[in-house]
Each structure stands twice: as C-alpha cells, then as structure tokens.
Amino acid sequence: MYIATRGGEEAIQQSEALYHLLNGELKRETVQRLQESLPYLVDRIMGEASLYCPELAALAIAQTGGDLYEAVLLLRAYRATRPRIAYAQPVHAREVLTVRRISAAFKDVPGGQVLGPSLDYSHRLLRLDVLDGKSDESGLGFTPSERPASPTYPAVADWQRQQGLLRNQDADDTPAGEIPDLTTESVQFPASRAHRLQALARADTGGVLALGYSVMRGYGLIHPTVNELRLGLAEVMVQHPVTGVTFSAGRVRVSQCEVVAPAGDETSYSVGFAATLGWNEVKLIAASTLDLNMAAHDEGSPQHPAHAEEFVMYHTEPVESSGFCIHFKLPHYVTFSSTADNVRKVTQAVLGASNAAVTHMPVSATPETEEA
Amino acid sequence: MLKGLVSTQQAYSYAYLDPYAKREIRRRILKAIAIPGYQVPYASRELPIARGWGTGGLQATLALVGPDSIVKVIDQGADDSVNAANLRRFITRMTGASTTTDALRSTILQSRHRIPEERLAEGQILVLQVPDPEPLRAVQPDISKAAQLHADFDYGQMWLSLYEQLVRFGQVVHGASYPSVVNGRFLISPSPIPRWDTPKLHQAAHLTILAAGREKRVYAVPPYTDVRPLEFSDIPFQVEDQTGRVCKTTGAQNQFMNEIPLEDGTAGYELSDSGYAEKLANNLIAGPTYYIDGAFYHAGILRPPVRPDELDPAGHPPSG
Questions:
Q1: Nearest to B309 among A4, A11, A353 (CB)
Q2: What's the rounded Cα separation, in Å, for the pair A292 and A278?
Q3: Cα(B276)–Cα(B153) distance, rounded to whole angstroms?
Q4: Interface subset of A 10-29, CB within 8 angstroms of B
Q5: Is any Cβ of chain B less than 8 angstroms from the Cβ of A301?
Q6: Beta carbons within 8 Å of B22's beta carbon, 6+ residues apart
Q7: How many C-beta atoms surround the C-beta of residue A199 within 10 A?
Q8: Whose C-alpha in A319, B135, B165, B226 is 20 to 30 A from the C-alpha of A18?
Q9: Residue B268 CB: number of other CB atoms within 10 A?
Q10: CA-closest candidate to residue A341, choices B235, B305, B277
Q11: Is B12–A320 a contact, with Cβ atoms under 8 angstroms apart?
C-alpha cells in the first residue's frame, strides 16, 4: 500500500524483495558476464559515478536490473564511504596509451588518424541471424596489423600552437593534492575550471548530450570542430603517502575530447575540453562543446541556459537530477493541503461567500471565474 | 593485549559517513548556528538513499547521532510513512541509535515537511529536510546574484512578489515553505513545512538545522531566535485554516489535519502528527502544543486572519 500509513516498513521491504525477484538471481557469474560483454555500459556508469572499478560497476548494473541512475547512485554512495588517501598525478595526452585518436580538423595529423575500435562506419543492421542460433561472427575479419601501431601520439593542439592557431597557455602546475575537488568541497559560482571539468566528467551522459546538442543545433554561437578525440588507457601514477615513492596503481580506460572554434576576435581558436573515466565519445563531444560555450560567456550574460555554467553543472548531475525527479513519488499531502487552503480561499473570495452552494459548484462553469 | 588496542575492520564507518565528511558537516553546522539563517555551503556526500529524498537531513543527522541518541523520523508528520521508515531503518542500521515516535523523548528529530505539534524543549535538535534552500529562487534563479541580494539584505523582489499576489488574488497565496526572516537578518525557506508550522520556529527552545543534500547548503535557527514570516503591516500572515476540522480517531481540533477524501464526496480529517495522535489515542499525557486556543504560544506572532470576503472594497481588513 502506497499511502503513508500503517505498515510502511513491511511494505517497503516487500516492495524491494519483489523488485529483485522479478529481476532474477544476482550471481557472481552474471556480474562477470556483464562486465565482459557490456564494456561501454560499464564505462558509462563508471564515468558518471566517478569511480573506476569495472567489477563494482557491473555489480551495480546487475543489482539494479539495469536501472542506470540507480546503478550510478549505488557506486556514488559506495565511493563516498572511501576516504581519499592520495591524489594521482596528472595524465598527459602524449602519455596516454592510445587505441583510438581522430581529428576532424585535418585530413591527416602528425602520428596519423587512428580509427581503433568504432561503430562509426558500421551498417546499423540487427544481426537477426544470431537469434536463429547461426554462427557468431563478431570480430570475424579483423586482421591484426603486421606493424603494431605506436602506443602514444603527440597532441594535435601542440602542432596548432606552433602554427600560432592556438594561443599558448601556461601549464597549470598546481600540485595534485591541491587541485579543487568537487567531491570533497562545495562548488561556488563562478566555479573554478577544475570544478567545471570535474562536473562535466561525472555528468549524466544524456543530460550533457541534450544541453550540448542544444548549443550545437541553434542555441549556441559556436560551431565546434573536433580537434582531437582520444580513447586510451592511462597509467594512474600515485605517490605513496608514507614512503613517497611514485608507483603505478593500474591502468584505467579514459576518453578525452578537444573541440575548437574561432575566438571572438577571429585571431585564433578557442578550445573546449572534457575528459572522463571510461570510453564515452558522445558525452565528451557534447561536454567539450559546452565547455567552449561556457568559456565564451564567463564574462557577460549568457544568452541561453546551456551557456551558463551554473545551469549546466546543476542540471546534468545524474544523481541529483534523477533523485529529485523521482522524489515526487513521495507523499506530498501536507504541501498539497497548504496550497489547497489558498485555492479554496481564493475561490471563495472570487465566487462570493454569500453563495452557500459555492463549494459544490464546478469552478469552470461560472462566467465570473472565467473573467477573473 | 594488542587486540584491545586495534578496532576491528568494518565495511563502513560508524554512521556511514567517513570521519572527514562528518568533521566537515559538523563544522558547517557550527557556522550555520553562528550566523542564523545564513546558507553555509558544504560538500554533501552521496548516501545510499536517492538524492532529493532527505539526504541533506540525513547527513546532518548522521554527523550528529551517537549510540545514545534517540531518533525520531517523520515524513508529512507521520512516523510510519514509507520514506520515514526507510530513513529510520538506515540510521539505526548504521549507528545502533534507538528510535521513538514520541517527539518529546527524541534527541534528534528528522522531519520532512512538518514540525511536531508538541513543543520541543531545550537540548532537542530538529533536522528539517530541505529540497530548495534558496527562498529567492523564484525571483532570482541565479545563485550568485541571489547571494548578493542576501548580502545586501535586499529582499525587495520578494516583497514585490507577495504584493503581486495580493493584487491578483486579494491575498498572499504562498503555500508551504513560507519565506521568513531569521534574527532580523537572513531570509530563509523554512523548508516545505505548512504555514501552520512557521510560527513554531519563532523563539523556539530547540535547535533547528535545515539541510539540503542536492543543493549542498545547511542553515540553522538557533534556540530562542526570532523567526518572522514576511507580512505587510495591514495584511497579516495567515496559517492554513483548520476551523471545524475534527480528528476522526482522537477527536482533536485546532491542530494541522490531513484531509482524507471519503467515498461519499465529503472529507474526513485526522491529525497529521502521528506521534501526537498516538498519545491522544492511548490516553497518554501529551506535552503542551505550540497552538493553544486560537493562539500560538508567543502572543502576537500570529494576528487574526482576515477572510478575503471581509476586506473592504479597497482591499483593507476591517478596522478594529
């Protein structure tokens, strides 16, 4: 029973049990299978959760029956219980072990266009033969190159800086532990660039896409060019908090995207940037476009909500937006009765208190109210 | 012997939050108490409860709770509301604190949308869950600009919006979370409590902590602090009209009632405060309530309501 009276505790336990019953047994094998077969889903969840652990992400997906906002919340809640014992050192693009790297700005770039794994040029046809139990041909036809590709590549932006197309920017050498951290301090507006990029990194993929698409489609001033999009593996280098020795804590899948557009004065290009854990291209193209637009409007009034960092950062937060949306399922009868009190008083005032039948009269049937 | 010196490894910290998070929240709460009504930003950790379901209040409670605490959790005034049951279950599971439905026995009382009818005492903490801490959101959605308005004590736009309601509807039609000024300085949203509960905050003996999880703000009304709803000198603030409403279970009157639609098209009523109703139903001695015999416990905080039909043609209340 939904109504907030009697037996609420028993009811919510049964409701949860029924949810899990309908989703089937939660087994270790299921989790392992999910982790192996759905890496892009696992990546997306890890990015939004800002917690890199494919095994836990797969568990979260399995445990929630694939309700992704619930899965992200599970991981975020778990993440929030882990004390921050160290900060990794910054990852440089030129050091990322790159498996895919493309630039739309040039036909070819130093180091070459590396397509890597992608569905970009596939024919989107359902493989109905798989349902017929015919042979599994996935991956068939892939021939490893005789000459292995380079694991690392120079940044396209470096070449453009040499050419004077991009302005030189001083490297930010803030020590890792002193970089503002969105997860341990509250964001103040205007936000620091670190906070903005962190918020985009853990933003909701769909939310970032919707706002990013709005500025691409007609509510932005800037048509972005994908300067460089990368998928790769980054070595997480951590300084041991006690011994001071720097060591690799492992490799994580990362994406980064850089979009450019002519700066306001047309003498160079402005850069928008985004990076996240896991491979998630659509999110990063949208996020870096938002970064570019937000930077253009940091001074002066934003003309569209998606240009304002406050709007973008607040409304693409997956845990907060989804949580608040579903909270409307909670009983609201106290606030409802508070507004009903006003509605009744105003109705009574409009219709005139002398009319004894007022409470039984449909409001829309009286011409006076239509006037009012 | 060494065993006695080391604590056993546990999957989660006491009261779920790690000690750094707890320390931060406690410090922010202290600041909030020191500057009554000022919204103090805090990091706001994710909890295993959906965001927007009381995670702000829950973080405040978890930062304050101890094994000796007696916790009461209500939602819409009810202890057995599903969300209250769930939060209570989580708090006890992570802390071992005991629980009660008696508002007067509780040391920490976490609530969504209500303040109990019985007067809370010194030493008690009321934690209110807050969806939107910014009372100016409707007139100024930009947080940076709203912060400037608070800094300047510039609440002109809020007054204007109340005046516009008067012009359009003949009365102020603000529902729950009625904007109120704390300590003569900061305008707050008292959280979506009905207007009925707003006067209870004025010069209250207990400490009220208002915490928003999504919006990452905590603010407070310390004990014995002025809390005044915005009102014009000639148009007094009004609470929801409870006249003629009689609780079908306890026979109580003049408290905030739930309206229960009945099949015959009429309505029945029951006390919204389930803990208070429980006492009345079992003939237990209930404490004094905030609202007695037509007046809130601080004389003059609530001036007599004026029905719209009693206003003269110019919109003024009847004289005398």
A1: A353
A2: 22
A3: 38
A4: 11-12
A5: no
A6: B15, B62, B63
A7: 20
A8: A319
A9: 16
A10: B305
A11: no
**CA–CA gap between residue B57 and residue B61 (Å, rounded):** 6
Neighbours of B145 (CB within 10 A): 11
ipTM of the complex: 0.71
Residue entry with tokens 């079908």: B248
Rounded distance between C-alpha atoms, residue A272 and residue A291, angstroms: 5
Cβ contact (<8 Å) for A186 and B42? yes
Q: Give the domain ranges of chain B.
A: 19-135+177-225, 143-174
The fold of B19-135+177-225 is Rossmann fold (3.40.50)
Backbone φ/ψ region at B298: left (φ over 0), alpha (ψ -120 to 50), beta: beta
Assessment of whether the complete model's pTM goes beyond 0.90: no
Along the 372 residues of chain A, how does pLDDT read in single tens digits? Answer: 344 445 678 888 899 999 999 999 999 999 999 999 999 999 999 999 999 999 999 999 999 999 999 999 999 999 988 888 888 988 988 899 999 999 999 988 888 999 999 998 887 888 888 888 876 666 568 888 888 889 999 999 988 888 888 888 788 888 888 899 998 888 888 899 999 999 999 999 999 999 999 988 877 667 789 999 999 999 999 998 889 899 999 999 999 999 998 887 777 888 999 999 999 999 999 999 999 988 877 666 777 889 999 999 999 999 999 999 999 999 999 999 999 999 998 888 888 755 644 444 444 444 443 333
